[in-house]
Amino acid sequence: MWRPGEPSELVAAAAVGLTAWADGPPAGDRPFTIECYYRARWGRADEFIRLIRKNHWPVLKALKEKGRILSVSAAKPRYHTAEDGRWDYQVTIVFKDALVATDPSVEEAVKKQLFPDVDTFKKEEQRRFEILQAHWDLPVEDVALDE
Known about the structure:
Elements: H1 9-20, E1 32-40, H2 45-65, E2 69-75, E3 89-95, H3 98-101, H4 104-114, H5 118-131, E4 132-140
Antiparallel strand pairs: 1-3, 1-4, 2-3
């Protein structure tokens, strides 16, 4: 579980993704996509997304404005699934490239700028992860079907 003061979930996800590529890391000049899945404890999904919107979404928007992130989208399932495959929210982040995805410096600077009350920010981010029952990040790459 992420703890305040540790590298952010985005940097951790990107780092895991870079080490998981069988053919080596993706080229630094093409987009790098990570799908983040979140399963909240029963009855806590609304609180989780509220905290995402309050603390994490502004950071992602700022990184997009800086050109480090190309796009961010979120989804939730329309219907329930079996518990073993259940997730409440999926966030897809497309970074400019793999190198940008693994550089925590700009993200940390944005957090300090957006949230000068560091203690409240850390407390709320800790709560966001306490709500989670499971969280996994999956770096993905496009597959051309017309080859």
